[in-house]
Every structure is written in structure tokens, then in C-alpha cells.
Amino acid sequence: MSELVAGAFPDVTAAAARRLMAAAVESFADNGYHATTTRDISTAAGMSPAALYVHFPSKAAVLSAISLSGHERALAIVEAAAAGPGTPADRMRVLVAEMASWHATHHRIARIVQYEITALPKADYTTVADLRRRTERVVRALIEEGVTTGVFACDVRSAARATLSLCVDIARWYTAASTPGPAELGKRYATLVLAMLGAGSR
Amino acid sequence: MSELVAGAFPDVTAAAARRLMAAAVESFADNGYHATTTRDISTAAGMSPAALYVHFPSKAAVLSAISLSGHERALAIVEAAAAGPGTPADRMRVLVAEMASWHATHHRIARIVQYEITALPKADYTTVADLRRRTERVVRALIEEGVTTGVFACDVRSAARATLSLCVDIARWYTAASTPGPAELGKRYATLVLAMLGAGSR
Asked: By C-alpha distance, which of A109, A111, A35 is closest to A69?
């Protein structure tokens, strides 16, 4: 298990829980969520099966912890960028660069976060759906501000959806061997999105 | 099982095979590929477990048939659009409109096609990877042509990736309840992509 994955849950305070979450990401990515057992996860984390239950009541609880942490991180990224300095175009450039590079760096986590959403327990699914709506609202409000102030020219709703879509889909195709690296990919995607929003045309 | 899904494999000649593929799409979407059995698929298709083996030697073979059909369809859509009449911008508008609307209309199939790729048998994975490369090459060549002729202004490689990414990611978030409908979504996405490629700025 890579340090990169284990370091991806800075909001989870117990080191053992972070290790289990990182091991679960690897197991889910390799074998699928449904085919993974709690024993697979604890073994991959170098822990006893019983140790897992100290932190998580079930496999679904591990998935929920990964998914909630990932969705909260995505929301934090867009909120920080949208509240940053500069014009809507400046802030959107930061937003896309950070979202794209997070999804490239943490593509294995992001895949679980994005594609295993239907396996979540109902209450956690509701929380995740709410985090997604809030994330989309932040992006939409920033584009709206840009359109209102004449910085952008686009259909706000579709453009917000497309902007997030571009960043999220990186998790599907990006691998450790992909080029360019996360930071450079983020920059290029930011340039593409600004053009898409009509920022380049004025 | 919906007629829409069963009608989505026009290249598969045996009606029973199409029914089994459509039933598999529903089962994989509801329970995940790994948790689905060949019995689940045949039952959902209203057929005996033995009837499945007349058409497919295994569950993996059903997945392969769905994945190959979907990837061939995607390649056919981009090839037809790229070979169509008009400027690179005209052809790109058709390409995105058709790819986006196919992924919206067939979002359940597209989800299997896009996200269950690691479960494919090795030989079929190689074929699918080749179909993906060819699809991306067609899109890249069309953008390249647009840049060369001064119709587009963008980084060709990132823009090709982003264009396909936008269309493919529709399968992740689109549901039967989503608005706008597939055709209108395709139109809006085509407009966004043309702006992203720098077509609107001249």
C-alpha cells in the first residue's frame, strides 16, 4: 500500500483507520467492492480481521468513510478556490487546476468515490448526494458570477456540469503511467475549461 | 428489461443473445459485475440457465460482448462524424452531439462498458484498449485538422482527451430522470466543446 494513498485521508484522525481505508482502496480497485471481504482489507493492511471492527462495523462502513472523505475533499477544494482572490476566471482556473490534479493524483481513491456510490448504505448515500449537490452549486455560482459580470459567456447549468465532469472523469482514465503529471494536467484542463466558459473570447 | 436496452446491440444478430446482454446490463448495474451470476442473467432474461451457455461460455463472455459492442458503436459514431461533410467545426459538432446523446440514452450500458473494463478477459481487454485508442485517434486527427486550418486553437492532445471525457462521463451521472433529454444535452455539449477548442473565438 502506497504512502500516497494512506496520506489521502488527512481528516481521519486514527492512523489504523487510515491504513484500513488505504488497504480497502487497493482491494476494491483490484477486485471490485462486492468481491472484497473485510478479511481481504485487514490482511492488506497487515492487521488481524478483528482489528478492522475496532474502527469499522462493516465493509460498507469502510466504503462510506472513503466516499465521505473524498467527497468532502472535493467540496473543500471548490469552496476554497471559489472564495479565493481575483476575477471569476482567476478563481475558476485555480478550481479546475486543483480538482483535476487531485483526481489524477488520487485516481484510485476517486474511482471508488465516484463509481461505488450505489453500494453505499442509504444514510451515507444521502450525505454523499448532498455533498455532490453542494459542490455543483459552488461551481454553478462561480460561473453565474462570471456570466453576470461579462467574464464568461455560456449556458451556466451545462457548463457547471461539464466542468466537474471533466475533472471527475480523469479518475477513469488516469494511471500512474499517464502523462502529463497531475499538476501539468490540471493547468491544461484549466485553460480548456476557461475557453469552454467563453473566457478566452473577450 | 427495457426495449431500449435490448435494441442497443444492433450488431448482435441472435435475438436471444441480445436479450441476455440486455438482462446482464440490468443485473450488472443493479448488483455489480462480480456479484452477478450467470443464473441471475438468464433468469432476468426469462430463460433457463442452460440457455445462456448456448450463446455465451461464461459471465465474462457476456461482459465482453457488451463491452465490444459498446466500444465498436462509439468508434463508429466518431468515424462517421469525422468523415462527414463540412468544416472540422461542423464535424466536431456532430461528433460531440452524437457521442453525448448516445451516452445519455444508453447510460446503463455505457457504465458497464466504461467501468467494468478491468473485469474483461485479457484478449478482449486488448481488443477494447485498441478500439479506445482508435476512437481517440479519430478525435485527435479531427482537432489537429481544425488547428492546422485555423478553425480551432488548442492543445490537441489534452483537448481530444477532454472531448471524449465529457461525453463518456455522462454515463456516470445521467439517469432516466435527468434533464435535458439526450438530444438537447448533445447539442449543448457540442456548443461547449466547440468553445473549448477555440472555435468560437474567430
From this structure: A109
Higher pLDDT, B100 or A8: B100
Q: What fold does the segment set A60-196 form as a domain? A: Tetracycline Repressor; domain 2 (1.10.357)
Question: What is B59-196's CATH number?
Answer: 1.10.357.10
- Average confidence score pLDDT of chain A: 92
* Per-residue pLDDT tens over the stretch A82-116: 999 999 999 999 999 999 999 999 999 999 888 88
Q: Indicate yes or no: CB of B172 within 8 angstroms of CB of A169.
A: yes
Is A160 in a helix, a strand, or coil? helix
pLDDT at residue B3 above 90?
Answer: no
Rounded to two decimals, the ipTM of the complex is 0.89
Chain A contact probe: residue of B192, B193, B194, B202 with most A CBs at under 10 A: B192
Residue-range domain boundaries for chain B: 59-196
Whether residue B85 has pLDDT greater than 90: yes
* Candidates A165, A189, A191; nearest CB to B169: A165
- Tracing cell 461460455 back to the chain, one arrives at B57
Over residues B90-99, the pLDDT tens digits come to 999 999 999 9
Determine the residue among B165, B193, B202 to mutate to test chain A binding: the one whose Cβ has the most chain A Cβ atoms within 10 Å.
Answer: B165
* Mean pLDDT, rounded, for B146-166: 96
The DSSP-derived string for A70-128 is: HHHHHHHHHHHHHTSSS-HHHHHHHHHHHHHHHHHHTHHHHHHHHH-GGGS-HHHHHHH
**Nine-digit cell string for B54:** 448456448
Is the per-residue pLDDT at B67 higher than 70? yes
Report the gap between the CA of A138 and the closest CA in chain B (Å).
18
Q: Say which residue the cell 466542468 belongs to.
A: A163
Q: To the nearest whole angstrom, how far is the Cα of B97 from the nearest Cα of chain A? A: 13
User: Which grid coordinates are listed for A73?
Assistant: 475533499
Q: For residue B191, which residues of chain A lie inside 8 Å, CB to CB?
A: 155
Give the DSSP H/E element, type plus range, for residue A196: helix A182-196
Count of CA atoms in the C-beta half-sphere (13 A) of B193? 35
A92 neighbors A83 (Cβ within 8 angstroms): no
